[in-house]
Amino acid sequence: MIIVMKPDVNKQQINNVISLVENHGLKTHLSCGDQVTIIGVVGDKSKLSKCNIELLGGVEKIVPVTESYKLANKKFHTTSSTVKVRDVVIGGDQFTIMAGPCAIESEKQIIETAHAIKKSGATMLRGGAYKPRTSPYSFQGLEEEGLKYMATAREETGLPIVCEVISLQSVETAYKYVDMFQIGARNMQNFYLLKEIGKTKTPVLLKRGLSATIDEWLNAAEYIMSEGNENVVLCERGIRTFETATRNTLDISAIPIIKQKSHLPVIVDPCHATGKRAYVNPLSKASIAVGADGLMIEVHPNPSVALSDGPQSLPPDEFDKLCNELRPFSKLVGKNL
Amino acid sequence: MIIVMKPDVNKQQINNVISLVENHGLKTHLSCGDQVTIIGVVGDKSKLSKCNIELLGGVEKIVPVTESYKLANKKFHTTSSTVKVRDVVIGGDQFTIMAGPCAIESEKQIIETAHAIKKSGATMLRGGAYKPRTSPYSFQGLEEEGLKYMATAREETGLPIVCEVISLQSVETAYKYVDMFQIGARNMQNFYLLKEIGKTKTPVLLKRGLSATIDEWLNAAEYIMSEGNENVVLCERGIRTFETATRNTLDISAIPIIKQKSHLPVIVDPCHATGKRAYVNPLSKASIAVGADGLMIEVHPNPSVALSDGPQSLPPDEFDKLCNELRPFSKLVGKNL
Amino acid sequence: MIIVMKPDVNKQQINNVISLVENHGLKTHLSCGDQVTIIGVVGDKSKLSKCNIELLGGVEKIVPVTESYKLANKKFHTTSSTVKVRDVVIGGDQFTIMAGPCAIESEKQIIETAHAIKKSGATMLRGGAYKPRTSPYSFQGLEEEGLKYMATAREETGLPIVCEVISLQSVETAYKYVDMFQIGARNMQNFYLLKEIGKTKTPVLLKRGLSATIDEWLNAAEYIMSEGNENVVLCERGIRTFETATRNTLDISAIPIIKQKSHLPVIVDPCHATGKRAYVNPLSKASIAVGADGLMIEVHPNPSVALSDGPQSLPPDEFDKLCNELRPFSKLVGKNL
Amino acid sequence: MIIVMKPDVNKQQINNVISLVENHGLKTHLSCGDQVTIIGVVGDKSKLSKCNIELLGGVEKIVPVTESYKLANKKFHTTSSTVKVRDVVIGGDQFTIMAGPCAIESEKQIIETAHAIKKSGATMLRGGAYKPRTSPYSFQGLEEEGLKYMATAREETGLPIVCEVISLQSVETAYKYVDMFQIGARNMQNFYLLKEIGKTKTPVLLKRGLSATIDEWLNAAEYIMSEGNENVVLCERGIRTFETATRNTLDISAIPIIKQKSHLPVIVDPCHATGKRAYVNPLSKASIAVGADGLMIEVHPNPSVALSDGPQSLPPDEFDKLCNELRPFSKLVGKNL
Q: What CATH code is assigned to B83-332?
């Protein structure tokens, strides 16, 4: 941590800052330049968490130099992690495709979809039973009934299932059915929910918030991990920018950045990122090329009658074509698909 | 709703779209231009919610022309609403100042602050018992113990109290103590939570999400109102942009826009918007001048030892000066402060 | 300047960095913590401009601690500046209103507008002769003919005139007519143009770029000032964000920030910021309350037939009403209007 | 074009709008719903460019349904274009790599680099002679001297050269030397400059502005094309968002969107997009996979002493490795590299 002092700082003020820091058991290094005086702080800065150093006389600003997340940080866990969901391994030399409808609509729909995606090469089934929707007048999901259909689809196909949870109540219900919890973008900083699922051992797919920095995203993972659940997989799904040609802007650079800063696996959701089916195929190829560990793709047997996000869903034949086109890319990057 | 067709659309495709719409009981108007063909749709578009018209052959895009929120919409409720929190009226010709610490730290701290802010002119006491923090290693709040201190402060001063809730559990606990629930920016689209507090009659202060459009914000209010609780006050607290000189960018234009689009009262939180104490005074003046119905200001008896957000908190003497400087502005805009 | 080293840095790498810095005549301070090693650099960092220290072995990142602008910086020029345009003073205890049409359309239009705005209280006339438009098929301005009309309007009313320049050629032409050059948002980082007008003594109104940080904006002012022209007035006109309810988002916080970081006067353009006439009045009041030194307002004798930006222009009677409503605010903040 | 009327519109107001539109020779279609009345407008809307319909009584807003660019629009030019720079074809089944230093520093530097990149597989040489820099105190480029070095490098290697121009003066000088003009991000809306290069026949590389929408970018291309120069290649180089982990956010979705909306070739500049060398390799692979027509890569013989943007430049050996790794991807997507 660096404390930058104001240009007109006086000796007394500098000494006050140094005393405060050293009284908490940390060391300081003073550098006095012509234009600026800075105080370097060495030691465990959490000891200073109750001191608002920025408010001391003569202080201009504080510049942090280390990340606040530890368990998710590659600096302290230098090899890449893998997360196991039943028999499916995410990360390492696997390229995992999770597919299924945005919203679960019926038992028939989900079982039909599960068979189709398995045949094409997906190894996990996704489906939403609790749907966070911008308007209260939109379809909100089948809840527990939907989870039961998902479980039936797993029995029929063997595919592990991943479902979004949105509250403690939904965690308690979903816990009995799902193999992986999904935290959606809007709940990425619902810290209460993160802590609750951190107390389970169920793997978690943590989507990036619409306006979350990569640093905040890794801190959200830290919330889950610090409660004891280290089975976290990250999912980039687009951020909010000024551009309106796509629903969100896929931040593809986030993949190599996560690979550098964290040991956690990271996948891409190109459907929510763009909101348009036509862009899913090229962005899926970009994702595998850039080093992602997998994809989450919306597949619906009949997108034109989907109750949620039909315009970004692929019909089974397009999904099959996509998987076939991705296979040579996976070979090129040395991953199994 | 307008359906814009692709340039190469054929007659059959146009007829398909028209049939689908009319079969659901709505009317259409067809306009064929040299460059573009559009189909205007008249009637209750919620009847089409299960049709993904965007996916029909020949359709380029859908352009909505009406807002999806109704209860929060000024078009259907043309006079401005007021919200009553005990004896305090928010909206109308009142200018309401809510003040208090970011986090409740002790009984002494909150009672001392309550007396100070009341003396200066605040009519509501704020204080955080549940603190959503980016890092799991930061102070997370005193929870129910903090709420008890708030209730004691209310008894001593008569000031109604407003506290953030972050989960169903915290709603159940806070319900017994607080006069107004606060929904923080990170939970603005925690729809589950919105619905829960919508089932109560307790007034709600709904902060705007970091990356929420005004339209999404009003839809979040609609979630609460559609469950029966119409006592919603909006709070602009800054949005996330590329600018890093302030913690967030206060979207001051949101105030006149809300006044035009909705009948709900709207206040401003200049402390969270900027993250720096020095800007609170000028931005408070701008807020009253632009037409806001009130302010939420962080006040701490000793900001340099605050456990949360000290750098943006005012000490009591600065808060007193601020209130005194705001009074002539309130007269100018015809509001009581 | 702070050099943050990687966690696995070795002694040799640290010594390399220190040698490089000290060989350029600067001093270093080394701080070795458990988690991080940092090297503080004291002295004139421009001496290091040819060394890419970030690329040396063991270096993680560079953290600058001082601003790169000097002439525009309040640290080195602690009293607020005023800029004189003919007899009009901008800054200090003056509140200056510049008004006029977005685009100059005819001699009659501009003279009529000039008389009207003068009567209402404006002290400068604005008008665009060179119009940067998103589409090449939109009206591009009357060029020199328009400047002549502006000069005639000045003769008739005595109001100094401000006009946008967009190229060296337009500077050479406008130089003969105008009292103040305007640099539009799209040209804020047209450094070649900034340098050219820096070689004149004509006052400059420098609008903020759509996506320029405050730091970049002050560096753009520095470009002009470093060529010898210190008569720079800044103009906040909205930044680009995700919000689409307004054309841009007025960054009202920029005013107190500029007042803290720079000695230059700063005004607000609420018309371009919002793109909608209805918001000009409340945002003008917010601007005066927050501490701006003036306003730029679009006024057109008949907005419904304006060739450019009619929807955001005020007709003369609304402008007159606005000026009357602003006067008590100017008294309150101690400025002459 | 759709004209949406206010809820309380009256018949007279509707008739006024219809008369105005029809008097300009366009047709209208009226749709009256319970909640909203809309008027569809069919015909050449440029005839209405002088009418500010938004300001007529009863009008709520105008919704455009067609793009304002024509020459760059795929709707009117349905096959993909290629652009020829000397013998190099950009677009079609070619994948073109342009490489070279950010800034030209010496004859030796540029010739050495040219030989190296040619050997690795680049077919065009880039180099900056005019450098737009945020601070006036940074290195600004060798100007004409640099262009001469570039021309020498072309003679020695046969590689066509691309250089940024920033003003009419630089266009006039560069015209004699370069094979392709580059318009940088900061000048994407310097319409005066766009028109000037539109009058030449020299191919143009048009970088996307930091905060330009795809629509604005294509309108900027339209400026060049409408003057007669249709040899435009687009270059995505990152947009400005809230994320600070990279210098900008590479908008990879822009590639498939451009391919859908325009017939112009589009390449990617991963160096400026991220600002960090480590991300250039993965983002280059993502670019080829997503369908880009080429790359612009910064290569410097010795990045640690580069005068500009060293941290994002590759040394020749890393560039060679990159080209080798890209080749199998180019085969996969059916492009020649």
A: 3.20.20.70
* Cβ of residue A158 closer than 8 Å to a chain C Cβ: no
Just give the CATH number of D2-63: 3.30.70.1140
Amino acid sitting at position C309:
D
- pLDDT band of residue C304 (cuts 50, 70, 90) is confident
Measured between alpha carbons, how far is A219 from A237 in angstroms, rounded to an integer? 17
Q: Supply angle C-alpha D12, D18, D24, rounded to 5.
A: 135
* C-alpha separations of A310 from A101, A298, A314, B4, D96 in Å: 9, 9, 8, 18, 37
Question: Strand, coil or helix: what is A32?
Answer: strand
Classify strands A232-236 and A204-207 as parallel, antiparallel or unpaired.
Answer: parallel
- Interface check D47 vs B, CB under 8 A: no
| pLDDT tens, residue by residue, B108-133 | 999 999 999 999 999 999 999 998 88
If contacts are CB pairs under 8 Å, which of residues 276-315 in chain C contact chain D?
A: 303-307, 310-311
Residue range(s) occupied by CATH 3.20.20.70 in chain D: 83-332
Long-range contacts of B299-302 (CB under 8 A, 24+ apart): B299/B99, B299/B100, B299/B101, B299/B113, B299/B116, B299/B117, B299/B122, B300/B101, B300/B102, B300/B109, B300/B113, B301/B109, B301/B112, B301/B113, B301/B116
Q: Of C33, C34, C42, which is closest to A31 when you measure between CB atoms?
A: C42
Task: Name the segment(s) of chain C with CATH classification 3.30.70.1140.
Answer: 2-63
B52 φ, ψ (degrees, to nearest 5): -90, 80
Give the residue-averaged pLDDT of A229-236.
98
Q: pLDDT tens for residues D208-261?
A: 999 999 999 999 999 999 999 999 999 999 999 999 999 999 999 999 999 999
pTM to 2 decimals?
A: 0.92
pLDDT beyond 90 at C35:
no
Q: Which amino acid is at B70?
A: K
Res C92 pLDDT > 90: yes
